[in-house]
Amino acid sequence: MKPFAVGGAGGGSLECSKLITENINRLFANREPWQVATITTTAVLSSVWLWSFINQDESIYTRGKRQFFRYLKKVPAVRRKIESELSKANQDFKGEIAKLTGTLEYCLQLPENGLSKEEILKLMDEHLKLGHYDWRDGRVSGAVYGYKEDLAELVTQVYGKASYTNPLHPDIFPGVCKMEAEVVKMALALFQGDEQCCGTMTTGGTESIVMACKAYRDYAREHKGITQPNMVVPKTIHAAFDKAGQYFNIHVNYVDVDPKTLEVDMKAFKKAINKNTIMLAGSAPNFPYGTMDDIEAIAELGLKYDIPVHVDACLGSFVVALARTAGYRVKPFNFSVKGVTSISADTHKYGFAPKGSSLVLYSDVKYLNHQYTVTTDWPGGVYGSPTVNGSRAGGIIAACWATMMNFGFNGYLEATKRILDTSRYVETALRKVDGIFIFGKPATSVVAMGSNVFDIFRLSDALCKKGWNLNTLQFPSGIHICITDMHTAPGVADRFIADVREAVAEIMKDPGQPVSGKMALYGMAQAIPDRSIVGEVTRCYINSMYSIPSKK
């Protein structure tokens, strides 16, 4: 029987260390120095590679799956099939564009002599008449959030006066800069910001979100030394966060939502946070289902781990900001929630300003300063810009300012009441339609529908044939209508409800029938495991928008 080692645990550790040393010496016995150096270097580099391979933001499964499909597409037969299908899709997309614009000729070169005012306005009217949907009649989900002839005339005049101004030159156009500052402050008041809060205008919700992500990436790099950043967001958050991730090399760590509430799973959200997390984000509300994440809970995590928290209120805009004042219950989400450090909100949605204006707002200028881009050593001089653009359209800033001044607080409050009243009216009626269900609990103006009985895209197709243009959803399949001020006009909501009831009743006569036509593509797209192929099809579609139909 062997004697016990002296020294307890310390002695055992010493014996283990001695054993490892002896084994290493035995391994390298009778080897040349260059062999020892080569083996050691190989072992170290292999260990470093293995460590970096395992410790990446993306799981091994996700990376392996992507690599598998990448190699699979290199197989000649597979590649030929994919290229054949992409070619067909490309021709189909171009054919659709040709049909939509078929009544007009394309101008491929500058006219030899400039056109007259009358000729240009005539062409403008002809171009604007193209399309199958009557958005003025309230037949479209979202897209156009409000339209009044008198307001359109006002912003047209305002834009005309400021159309050649550029806030890049504040010494030349100080009045436009003053208007932008006022737009920011008026919006901050709606979102319960204090004197420390600040922000800028942008060209749209995507730029607002992208700017916030850029600010937090740079802030984390400077103050925390984070060089491999990630953000933790719900799976339902806007695609602009993915765009920001691609632009700024920020890994997007998506967290699943509760299948019933369609709100982010907070337990999984907390687990997703790590030492490289530069920002947390939630929606108020999200685009697909119109549900609102638990911003208070996300903000608590932000405070606990000292991580900035962004609230995406681009879709909710002034409606979600004024919902409580209008008498509706919404969960706290704005700057009154401790831990919320930024909010994005679109003035060109429920602010009813012309397209091309949005806001990104911060709780502290220390974050805003990292949104800016400053170049100090350019021969053209010191150059700084607050957003992606250098030159910016002063006309859009002025038009947004004029719209807000024209509406006033009470005007926005009344619009909020109209929109939310109509949204709840539509939601209540649709919940009573046999064969469909409503996703989660809509927080503001989006009402999303699904079905456990039939393919919901059949309903989308049926409503499309009745003149309605709704948004299609995936994972799971669904459709939604985003209620705007256009839908609050007398009879519009009732007409929509009646058309849904009629279409569902017809579908329920044969609920098992598969969807056909263009809508079948949406279901097929979800079933494709290699998402890069869906990406290639999408690029074909975008390219088709710039295609010029041949004369033949």
TrEMBL record:
<dbReference type="GO" id="GO:0008117">
    <property type="term" value="F:sphinganine-1-phosphate aldolase activity"/>
</dbReference>
<keyword id="KW-0256">Endoplasmic reticulum</keyword>
<comment type="pathway">
    <text>Lipid metabolism; sphingolipid metabolism.</text>
</comment>
<comment type="similarity">
    <text>Belongs to the group II decarboxylase family. Sphingosine-1-phosphate lyase subfamily.</text>
</comment>
<dbReference type="Pfam" id="PF00282">
    <property type="entry name" value="Pyridoxal_deC"/>
</dbReference>
<dbReference type="InterPro" id="IPR015421">
    <property type="entry name" value="PyrdxlP-dep_Trfase_major"/>
</dbReference>
<keyword id="KW-0812">Transmembrane</keyword>
<dbReference type="GO" id="GO:0030149">
    <property type="term" value="P:sphingolipid catabolic process"/>
</dbReference>
<keyword id="KW-0443">Lipid metabolism</keyword>
<keyword id="KW-1133">Transmembrane helix</keyword>
<keyword id="KW-0456">Lyase</keyword>
<comment type="pathway">
    <text>Sphingolipid metabolism.</text>
</comment>
<dbReference type="InterPro" id="IPR015424">
    <property type="entry name" value="PyrdxlP-dep_Trfase"/>
</dbReference>
<dbReference type="InterPro" id="IPR015422">
    <property type="entry name" value="PyrdxlP-dep_Trfase_small"/>
</dbReference>
<dbReference type="InterPro" id="IPR002129">
    <property type="entry name" value="PyrdxlP-dep_de-COase"/>
</dbReference>
<dbReference type="GO" id="GO:0030170">
    <property type="term" value="F:pyridoxal phosphate binding"/>
</dbReference>
<keyword id="KW-0746">Sphingolipid metabolism</keyword>
<dbReference type="GO" id="GO:0005789">
    <property type="term" value="C:endoplasmic reticulum membrane"/>
</dbReference>
<dbReference type="GO" id="GO:0019752">
    <property type="term" value="P:carboxylic acid metabolic process"/>
</dbReference>
<feature type="modified residue" description="N6-(pyridoxal phosphate)lysine">
    <location>
        <position position="349"/>
    </location>
</feature>
<protein>
    <recommendedName>
        <fullName>sphinganine-1-phosphate aldolase</fullName>
        <ecNumber>4.1.2.27</ecNumber>
    </recommendedName>
</protein>
<keyword id="KW-0472">Membrane</keyword>
<keyword id="KW-0663">Pyridoxal phosphate</keyword>
<dbReference type="InterPro" id="IPR050477">
    <property type="entry name" value="GrpII_AminoAcid_Decarb"/>
</dbReference>
